[in-house]
Specification:
The chain is mainly α. It is built from 19 helices and two strands. 75% of the residues lie in helices and 1% in strands. The radius of gyration is 22 Å and the shape is globular. It starts with 10 loop residues before the first helix and ends in a 14-residue tail after the last helix.
Length: 469
């Protein structure tokens, strides 16, 4: 059929909107837990954020371990059923998290150990969301729109993650709605999304009755060798032996290593070191700053990588340029945050961390577009593998940061002859954990420099399974 005079339909933009909304829900549910840490700690009777490390890290571990299996399912069976299963599962465990600390008569108490189990199961549920979003976008968007679309997906996530402290302040502090009810409400939002997604989404444009031939032609342009559906036989050996894959995974480990501090520990450091109160509007803005500025970083970085591509740069340098710059700039932001921490300047510390979030997220569009470039019909598996290693970085840093803070407190006790049985509160706790936070900020800055160097080994022009293309 001749499509020269036919205007392409815009169904692909509706699909992009659906997955962007999904991305927002993932971060709404993910960011709710660290913002609820005060209420959760009160329900268990402890006050130290480092005691929450295992509950926070349980999510990262499960999220990492189940990325490849759910990416595999998306490539083989299509993203539609896989994403619906994922969202129903994690929405259920979001709601269940609201039961933490409750006693049900004399026969059952939702203890801290149970909370760790529930957070692990929540992580299993969220695993595979972004690999399957990547697979859906791979099926639905032309090559020249990949970076912008991935940037928009992550922009949506960061906006909602950044707004979650504000929503928590409004619902829980100002309106005095029980934090447990808020968790149930957040879980219900995911179920509503599943209903809309099931009715609208198709695994590829050929299955959707509203897509005309001109839009199909636009989507398939420049996708030689990329349009096949993956099958049950996956060449795992070739994937894991690929130099591209090794560098991509190592880079994403570094990228997540510093970023998870913003999600898991920033609320605590603002409270402990700068006495920013939970009911303070400015405090909510400080805590959400890295994600809110990160939203702009995702958008700009995604636009930039596609712009470089349209200007004639190779895919390799179109992806590499914003990513290398973002990693280096992010490392410098963490070093500046260290200075303002020592100066006890809450505003400029928060600004430095917020710009670290912005620079981190300049890389996101390029990173996930590279998964499509080199993964092609195995895009979900490639992005799932990358995200698995990246979230292992999140798991390691969440535990490691807590251990470093414990080490810092131990040294403080020894230097000040304070007994282990004595609880540290207020200014004592801030002084005890200061060295630990300083050490962590230096470590994050250095790891980002390593991430920048690793990008020089990633070639987006080279598919992992080149002989199949």
């Amino acid at each position: 059929m001749n499509t020269d005079n036919q205007q392409p339909t815009k169904v692909r933009h509706l699909i992009l909107g659906l997955v962007c909304f999904l991305s927002m829900i993932t971060y709404l549910d993910r960011a709710a837990f660290p913002n609820a840490q005060v209420q959760i700690q009160q329900s268990f009777g402890f006050t130290d954020i480092s005691q929450m490390a295992w509950a926070m890290a349980a999510f990262n571990l499960a999220y990492a371990l189940f990325e490849i299996p759910t990416g595999y399912l998306g490539d083989v069976f299509g993203p539609k059923t896989t994403l619906i299963r994922i969202v129903i599962w994690w929405s259920a465990f979001t709601a269940i998290s609201g039961l933490a600390g409750l006693a049900f008569g004399t026969w059952f108490t939702f203890g801290f150990g149970m909370l760790i189990v529930v957070r692990f199961l929540f992580g299993i549920g969220e695993a595979g969301a972004y690999p399957n979003i990547t697979r859906a976008l791979h099926n639905w968007l032309p090559v020249t729109e990949r970076g912008f679309a991935q940037g928009l997906v992550w922009t949506s996530a960061r906006i909602m993650g950044g707004l979650t402290p504000l929503l928590w302040l409004i619902f829980v502090i100002k309106l005095e709605i029980s934090w447990r009810i808020v968790f149930f409400f957040f879980g219900a939002v995911g179920l509503l999304w599943c209903f809309a997604f099931a009715r609208i989404f198709k695994n590829n444009p050929n299955e959707h009755p509203a897509v005309n031939d001109a839009e199909k032609e636009l989507i398939l342009k420049d996708k030689v060798g990329e349009t096949e559906q993956a099958h049950a036989h996956i060449p795992w050996g070739k994937l894991f032996a690929s130099r591209n894959m090794v560098f991509l995974c190592a880079m994403y480990f570094c990228l997540n290593f510093g970023w998870y501090f913003n999600l898991n520990y920033l609320p605590a450091i603002m409270s402990e070191q700068f006495q920013v109160k939970a009911e303070d509007w400015l405090g909510a803005l400080y805590k959400g700053g890295p994600l809110l500025l990160g939203a702009f970083g995702c958008f700009i970085g995604g636009f930039a990588t596609d712009w470089f591509l349209r200007q004639g740069k190779s895919r390799t340098w179109a992806r590499r340029t914003p990513a290398v710059f973002g990693n280096i700039a992010c490392g410098l932001c963490y070093f500046s945050a260290l200075y303002f921490l020592n100066q006890k300047d809450a505003m400029f510390f928060a600004i430095s961390i917020a710009f670290a979030g912005f620079c981190n997220d300049l890389t996101m569009g390029a990173t996930w577009a590279t998964c499509q470039d080199i993964g092609q019909k195995h895009a979900a598996i490639v992005s799932g593998t990358m995200n698995m290693i990246g979230n292992l970085g999140g798991f390691v840093v969440t535990i490691l940061t807590g251990k470093i803070l414990e080490w810092s407190k131990t040294n403080f006790r020894i230097e000040n002859a304070i007994d282990n049985s004595t609880k540290l509160i207020g200014n004592e706790l801030a002084a005890a954990q200061l060295d630990g936070y300083q050490f962590n900020l230096v470590m994050f800055g250095l790891v980002y420099m390593v991430g920048a160097a690793l990008w020089l080994g990633i070639d987006a022009n080279k598919p992992l399974l080149q002989e199949e293309s």
